[in-house]
Design a protein that fits this description.
Length: 176
Amino acid sequence: MASNTETRRLSGLDPVAGPGARLLILGSFPSEASLRAQQYYAHPRNHFWPILSAIWGLEGLQALSALPYAERVPIAMAHGVAIWDVYAGCEREGSLDSAIRCAQLNDLAALQRRLPTLCGIAHNGGESARHMKLTKALGLPVCQLPSTSPANASWSFERKLAAWREAFERFGVAAP
């Protein structure tokens, strides 16, 4: 029987990636809400989907956060965005990156081989960016973006949006 002090091993989500992917967005590891829903960025206060909507000019009923997840994913892929995490699995209580223990890295090189059109990698937040040495070794331009997590309250939505828009324009995945 497990004691209350033991942390259970968690497994992450499969990548969201399709042909024509130009920018891989790497988070650290899915939140509890995302793992429960089996959806990237499922926490309702996470700015990920609203930022993508704003960059691509999707408003109202077209906004990604207004759509079911099964409809969001193809839209992201159609814009050339792939989504994954640096960690395949870890031990963690709660959702904070600071609680991640015994992390196992995803095979980013294998994903890159599956995505020949990939031209950049963007780390969503500081924990993901801790592995920039690894992603830079893949030979693509790499950048760090401010975390879209609700825990990153020091950055306003507008400030996050400006940083993300700049990266999306750089890698050719912003709205024309």
